[in-house]
Amino acid sequence: MPRIDNDVKLDFKDVLLRPKRSTLKSRSEVDLLRSFTFRNSKQSYTGIPIIAANMDTVGTFEMANTLSKFSLFTAIHKHYTLEQWKEFAVSNPDCLPNVAASSGMGPNDFEKLTEILELFSGVRYICLDVANGYSEHFVEFVKDVRKKFPDHTIMAGNVVTGEMVEELILAGADIIKVGIGPGSVCTTRKKTGVGYPQLSAVIECADAAHGLDGHIISDGGCTCPGDVAKAFGAGADFVMLGGMFAGHTQCGGETIEKNGKMYKLFYGMSSETAMKRHTGGVADYRASEGKTVEVEFKGEVESTVRDILGGVRSTCTYVGAAKLKELSRRTTFIRVTQQLNTVFN
Ligand code: 5GP
User: Fold this and answer.
1) Which of 102, 186, 270, 278 to mutate to test the pocket of ligand 1 (most atoms within 8 A of CB)?
2) What pTM was estimated for this model as a whole?
3) Which residues of the chain carry a pLDDT beneath 70?
């Protein structure tokens, strides 16, 4: 007989943050920088823990260049050639501490990752990304990568439950990517019926990770700065964004003109668009389950970054957190049935 878990599980849209009395005068007083020391690599990080997703539209060198000026992080997608990496590393050495090199489980991927890490010692982060982080095979892969790169910081995922977070941390990962199905161009829930409401996944996975001195990334499902704040409030150490960074000058993907308006193509890493682009390279990465959308062109990503950081700073002042680090401790979520007044939508 199938089991039904009757505990309520929530998404960002189901809650709001309750304001709290505070002594903070202005959002300019809020410090968004965080410092972490990672459990397995023993390496340290300081920055604003927001990450551009390792999608070929968003996890670009151009994005890394801009985001690193704001102390944000970029997970570089896995489709760049070594030659392109070389060009980037030589002309932007300052960016290297703020990027990860990505890999799926395919042998070609891993070979390229190894070459990148051996050639560019400034790249200290590895992002191991598979659609389904629950396979034993993936756990073994994480162990192998840890053995080969004992002092690189390893991000690994995606999972949504505490027991798998623990298993991946014990296998050698430092930061676990949390999220199955919440992504803006993800169709996993539709295609498979599998998923987990993102806010609850983050709360539960953060608890599991922090118990082992590990860290988590809330990956996917943020639609606005308020959602980013909720993810941090729920206990995420990092928040990864795809859709919110899409449509900018710094993005990869075609630019399209329609009726005098500019759009940029944004697509899931296992969408047909991505598969066609990287024939043979995507099938083993994201088994299927992605779509393609046209995003209205938004110009330079700087203004979006400012909007997100301004929003999160403001959240901190509403709940009385002088530092981003204090946000989850100051968080009380209220369950709601309505968030926004839509009268003018
Ligand atoms: P967003 O911020 O756009 O809501 O979510 C970004 C995340 O969606 C990525 O970091 C990645 O985990 C996930 N994602 C990207 N492409 C695909 C895809 O084709 N299929 C699925 N299931 N997830 C995807």
Assistant:
1) 186
2) 0.97
3) 279-288
